[in-house]
Amino acid sequence: xxxxxxxxxxxxxxxxxxxxxxxxxxxxxxxxxxxxxxxxxxxxxxxxxxxxxxxxxxxxxxxxxxxxxxxxxxxxxxxxxxxxxxxxxxxxxxxxxxxxxxxxxxxxxxxxxxxxxxxxxxxxxxxxxxxxxxxxxxxxxxxxxxxxxxxxxxxxxxxxxxxxxxxxxxxxxxxxxxxxxxxxxxxxxxxxxxxxxxxxxxxxxxxxxxxxx
Length: 213
Hints:
The structure is a single chain. It is built from seven helices and five strands, in the order E-E-E-E-E-H-H-H-H-H-H-H. Strand 4 (56-62) and strand 5 form a beta hairpin. Strands 1-2-3-5-4 form a five-stranded mixed barrel. The longest helix is centred in the C-terminal third of the chain and has 18 residues, at 179-196. With 213 residues, it is of the alpha+beta class. It folds into two domains: 4-79, CATH 2.40.50.140; 83-210, de novo design (two linked rop proteins) (Up-down Bundle).
């Protein structure tokens, strides 16, 4: 059987057996993708040091003809994002971003814009992090995942959300919101996710208390 190659970021890894992992990736070529990594939990296994949350790898897998679970054949570490593990707030923000991408996207529905957004934001989180940046990521992900959020611009909160939606990554660094404004825009954004996602975000409970400017 022919193998496929992709560039992917690890969204989630789950133990399946004493030696194997089920790995959920977001890839540039195939979108959200699940693979079985046999032997990945063995100390001297073939994937040792190559698969962990936020890791960006080049992967080689054998496609399954009967399900959406494919067999990971090999992978090559491109970027481990080590700085994301240097603080609780960067680890929390990166975990939240990855969970959002997993829940907001369909299985094997390629979307290079979503992949590029996730890859970019993980790099940015290593250098700087604040609440406004995380909310900007959420709003940008909504649009790239196909949801056209409409903000009520007759309210101050709606105008702030529209301004964030229109901001570039460089521009968002110049946006300063008060704690009250941040609470208001976060509440509206989270309400949007609650309506559109199939299940609640496990990492959300940590975001408000751990990510501060």
